[in-house]
Amino acid sequence: MAKDSHKETNTKDKSRRSPALALLLVLLIAAAFFMLSDVSFIKSARDAVMQKFGYESVDTETEEPDNGGGTIETPGKGGSDDGVIGGLDAGALPEYNGQHYIKVNGNVPEFPDEVYERAGLIKDGDSWKTNGNLMGTVDSNKLTPYEYYGSLDSLGRCTGAYGCLGEETMPEEGVERGDISSVHPSGWAKAQNWERCHLIAWALSAENANPSNLITGTHYLNYDGMRPLEEEVEHYIWETGNHVLYMAVPWFSGDELVARGVQMTAWSIEDKGEGISFNVYCFNVTPNAEIDYKTGIVTTEEQASQEARLYVVNKRSRVFHYPTCEGAQSISPHNREEVTATRVELTSQGYTPCGACEP
Ligand SMILES: [Zn+2]
C-alpha cells in the first residue's frame, strides 16, 4: 500500500518536471488514433482533412453539398444528422477516369429515412423491418411499392427520384413505351446527340414523359453506364417478385444545366441486399468529346480538328504548316501567307499538310 502511493507520487513528480513531454505523448497517441481509427465519425473527419490536402475520397463519406447539385430533400443521407450525404460532394465531384461508373461509399447503399418509411418499413436499431414482424424480417405484403419524383429546381433541373420498386411499379406486359420527345430537360441543346435519360428506367417505373424523371444525358451514360444496372434490378424483380429500394440522383456542378453524373443506389428489401446492393456514380460523358455542361454544347475531337485556326501557307508549294513549324519560318516572305481557316477548307483548296508539323 505504502509502496503504491509512493509510486504515484513519483509519477506525479515526473510529469510535473516535464509537462511538455507528457503533452507531446498525448498528442502523438491522439494523432495515431485519428489516423488509424475505424470509428465512423473520426473516419469522415480524417477524410475531410485528407481531401483538403488534395486526396480524392471517392469511396468515403464527405460533407453536404453547398449548392444545387443532387438535392432531393436529403439524398443519400443515411438517416443521420451528421451532414454525411451519400458519399458525394457537389463541390468536388469525381473526375471521369475511363470507367463507366465508380463506387460510392464503398458501394454500400445509403438512403434518407423517408425512402424506407414510404415503403412501409420501420426502423429497428440499425436495420429496417415491416411492422409487426419479429426478428427484423420483411413481409412483402406489408411493403408499399411507390415512386417519388422530386420537383425541378429553380434552374429547371431534375432533383432526383426514389422509390420502392417491384412488379407493381413496372409496366404491364405488352405495354409499349410512350413518346418522351415533348420533354426538353435542362441543358438540352439541339443536334448534340443528347438522349433523354430516365432517372428511374421506364422498365422499372412505367414513367414516360415525366419532366422530373428525364435528364439530358449522353448515350454513354444512358446505355453503357446506367442500363446494365437497371437491367440487373429489372431481372431480379421478375425472377424473385421481391422489392428494391431505388434512388437516382443527378449531380450538377454549381449552376450548370447538364448533370455531371447520376448516382444510382439500390438495395433489395426482402433478402436485405443479398440480391441487389449497389451505390455508384455514373459519368455523364462521351469519351473523346468535350461537353460544355453550362450550355449542353458537345465538341467531339473530330469537330475540334475542324475548328478554324491560324496556319501558315506556302503559296508556291501549296503546303500548309502550324505557325510554330520550322518549315513555316523558312518560307520566303514572297510565298508566305498567314490564314485563319479549318483544315478541311485548306485541303479542299488543294493545300497539303506539312509532313513535319502534321497540321
Ligand atoms: Zn510544317
Question: Topology, pairings included?
Answer:
Layout: H1 2-17, H2 19-36, H3 40-52, E1 101-103, H4 113-118, E2 121-124, E3 127-130, E4 146-149, E5 161-165, E6 195-198, H5 202-205, E7 214-217, H6 219-240, E8 244-251, E9 261-268, E10 277-283, E11 289-292, E12 297-300, H7 301-305, E13 309-314, E14 319-321, H8 326-329, E15 336-341, H9 343-348, E16 352-353
Parallel strand pairs: 14-16
Antiparallel strand pairs: 1-10, 2-3, 4-5, 5-8, 6-7, 8-9, 9-10, 11-12, 13-14, 13-15
Zinc ion (ZN) binds at residues 321, 325, 327-328, 354, 356-357.
Query: What is the straight-line distance between the termini?
Result: 91 Å
Can you tell me the CATH superfamily of the largest domain? Extracellular Endonuclease, subunit A
Per DSSP, what share of the residues sits in E-state strands of 2 or more residues?
15-25%
CATH architecture of the largest domain: 3-Layer(aba) Sandwich
- Fraction of residues in helix: 25-40%
Query: How big is the Rg?
Result: 29 Å
CATH class of the largest domain: Alpha Beta
**Structural class by helix and strand composition:** alpha+beta
Residue stretches low in confidence (pLDDT < 50, at least 5 long) are 1-15, 48-69, 71-85
| Major sheet characteristics | 6 strands, antiparallel
Order of helices and strands: HHHEHEEEEEHEHEEEEEHEEHEHE
Shape: flat
Helical run tally:
9
Strand segment count: 16
How are strands sequenced across the largest beta sheet?
1-10-9-8-5-4
Task: Count structural domains.
Answer: 3
Average pLDDT works out at 81
